[in-house]
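Chapter summary example: a protein plus zinc ion.
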Amino acid sequence: MKTNHFWALLAAWALCIGCQSDEAASAPSAKAQTIADMKRATDNHSFSRPQEAVTTHLSWTARVDFDTRQISATAQYQIATADDAQRILLDCRGLDIASVMVDGVESSFELGPEQPFLGQPLSIPVNGQSQTVSVTYTTAPDAAAFLWVEGEAPFLFTQSQAILARTWVPCQDSPGIRFTYDADVQVPANLMALMSAVNPTEKSSDGHYSFVMDQPIPAYLLALAVGDVAFQSVGDHTGVYATPDLIDAAAYEFAEMEDMLVAAEGLYGKYAWERYDLLVLPAAFPFGGMENPRLTFATPTIIAGDRSLVALVAHELAHSWSGNLVTNATWDDFWLNEGFTVYFEQRIMEEVYGRDISEMLTTLSYQGLVDEVDGMMEVNPNDTHLRLHLKDRDPDDGMTAIAYDKGYFFLRLLEETVGRSAFDAFLKEYFTGHAFQVMDTDSFLAYLDDNLLTTEERRESVRVKDWVDGAGLPDNCPEVSSPRIDKVDQTLQAWINGSVATSALPWNDWLYQERYRFLSNLPNGTEAARMAELDATWQINSTGNNEVLFAWLEQCIRSGHAPAYPRLERFLVEVGRRKFLTPLYLAMVETDQKDMALRIYGLARGHYHSVSTGTMDELLAWTE
Ligand code: BES
Ligand code: ZN
């Protein structure tokens, strides 16, 4: 029974990874051959060897201690082992392991040497009959996945993607290995605990919470948040969690989540995770959003008061198919998660808000992509390939506009080549046929050839290889345009040459996308006096839209418009979203204002998550 289960898993895994054998030297038996194939390294960012033993279910019992900033826990796994298995390998980073059991009996274990980014392999002896392993451990106070917020409103959240789950749970931290889980979590009595699982909607009286996640997920989708949060429903399958001060604003901002869910299902098939809720995190969250299954984690900086920044919700929702259902096999295949998600996001936006809006967004992202590609071509052109080679590097290096927007434009090219209805049918079948499986780049390309690029003509017009393993943006990249954005560009030119006065700008008629375009394309070196005039006329410094504020602050730094600096400082101390931090600190460095950058960073750094301090420490050459 058990062995059958293992071989079924193995077979599915072999299919998905698309392993090929080139070492069939002495005609081994079919089973030995499969094991040999499986033993080939597949994920450079995990020590696990799923061919020998895999985790299939996690039972996690944990106590969260805000005073020591630690979690003490037991992770018990059900495992499936090959007949000749000798060990199971788990990924760990900074965990203090107290004891290990195999099938309920105390066991020896070995922690291998620490490696950069990866942490350590935890090796536990098992055999072909072993059923469970359990690890009792404590996390480090500075565990990289965590951010502990102190004060009157304590808050803890985790960020596991890409390879930080191992800093709070010993696990096979490889996107191709899925497991179900349940959890028992004890937190301070006045706080609520939430996970990427079935969640409570009210606080318990004693701070004890139980969770179940019945659908198998990879470790990077493990998530926990603890804080004083309330729940408000916004639809039949959708709702928001936020701290009491933000709950009403959040419920208003995200009221259209159910419409997005309906639109998404209409496009690419049934939603697989039952509920879709969103948790508003503290502003220190290093990302815009994270697609933790059933419960997207989101930055509060998208609460603009007018629902203008909800594309991010469409994005995280889309991951419920691209990423969470069909999962990139390794971080080299990250574009399969993000490129598909950006494409799907735009389709949801088009469905719910109309093509004018979605084309405005793609036009902005095209500009961002071209700028980023230009920069990357000078530094490391190989990083502009869709298929990455991140061995010996932090997988975080793959989080560039390439996976996202070059990925998007590649899919858009496919759409334009075969027509929308053929492409939609293809994508729907892709998600349905590979649900709860992994996908690597080669397997996707084979699937694409078999199912979509079925004629020589189509293959020639797409030129897949140029996109996937070639640098830069191929010359068949689809063109996007938006009449409203074109108009903004003309108005900007007229403002620059003086034919349109500041007071004559149609600022109040502009959507945030138009304001963002105007501000981000102001010429470098726009005089501070003109910035002052813009602000005096349109009160940009006090906008409630953080994308507009961000574009404005960057230009203020580049223009040396000092009256905006107190606002800049407040923003940087409050907000830990890396997408905003990097360009703002960089602008200070590039304009000989590094002293200011270091001073503000000194004030802000303690509030940031490790994902953001990692990047900023490097950018500012910060040493503690
Ligand atoms: N899954 C990503 C966030 C991520 C990627 C975290 C890689 C760690 C490693 C998430 O879906 C995402 O893409 N977020 C974007 C939002 C977006 C609208 C493009 C972000 O946070 O900026
Ligand atoms: Zn994403």
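Key point: The CA atoms of residues 196 and 222 lie 6 Å apart.
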